Amino acid sequence: MSTLYRRGNLWWYKERLPSHSKPLYLGLKMKDRRMAKLKQQQLDRVLTEMRLPQSSWSFIDDLQLDAQLRELVGKLCEMLGVSLNFQMRVPIVQALKEYEADSSMKKTPRTHKTDWSRVTGFFKYAGCQYLHEARSSHLQDYIAYRVRCEEITKATANHTLEALRTFFNFCIRRGLASVNPASKVEGFKVPLVPQHYLKTPDEIVQLLEAAKRTDPALYPMVAAAVYTGCRLGELMALEWEDVDFLFRKVMIKDKPHLGLRTKTGRFRVIPLHPDLATILKPLRKDSGFVFLPERTQSRKYTRPLCYRWMAIRKAAKQPDTTWYSLRRRSAATSPCLASRC
């Protein structure tokens, strides 16, 4: 017969089994006695079912196991030396619901949407109802189907596989699954694409001169990328209220009213270089975006921006330079570069 007792403010579960000399102790991690009593009844039923042959175990289907009870059942099985694999009959809808709540808080909206579509697409293809029904063969067939029919690249297939690995690892941490079928699937070997990074200040000066000569309207944006090291999306979302000419600083932050969020979601303050302040002062306005035209106010402006950036790179004879190259070697992180710009 099981009993409840308190240690401090928390309730504990105690059960004496005939097959064990020592009693089982489980911390319920709750202060309410009524909730602890409910957990006691559920654990008693679990232990009653465990005394039957494994083929007749049905408590996973009959009981509504929450995350805490699954953890307690796992501890019980570990103490009794019973395998946990056959117990993990968790509905996929429940696992996806918990994963969505966790992923939406930790990832950016765009990354969460992409990973969510990859995970849900796999389960729609596999047709599984329970999480333990997913197999490595299903994953291999799904990846092969996307490569063959949807014509995705090998790199995208690897990203899809990595999203599924993350999902199953999350389920293992939450006690929803015991194995990760995606860990047994090997990804494609993708050759690394060489990326040109600006190594010397002369290359950046040459790029700025080409931007000023080829596209004067885009020159302030290229100069801001060089002097601040901001990402392309952060520059396009930059507003005049974020640029402080008096205290010489640029503030990078989330824009909830525009539905924009930085990659890390953190507020950053970047020193405003005197040369960049000289370039931006003639363009200063009371409000609005610094670089994004008022008539668009949308990220669709990125499309023609690609072609203009391509023309600047060709004029500077640096066809492999990317916006991220400017971030890797900017005047904000390189004192010697700041003196040359």
Structure description:
It is elongated and about 85 Å long. The protein folds into three domains: 3-87, no CATH class; 92-184, Tyrosine recombinase, N-terminal domain (DNA polymerase, domain 1, Orthogonal Bundle); 201-340, Intergrase catalytic core (hpI Integrase, Chain A). Helix 4 packs antiparallel against helix 5 (109-126) and helix 5 (109-126) packs across helix 7. The protein has helices spanning 33-50, 59-62, 67-80, 92-106, 109-126, 136-149, 154-173, 201-214, 219-228, 232-236, 274-280, 302-315, 323-328, 335-340; strands spanning 3-7, 10-15, 24-27, 243-244, 249-252, 268-271. It has 341 residues and is mostly helical. The longest helix has 20 residues, at 154-173.
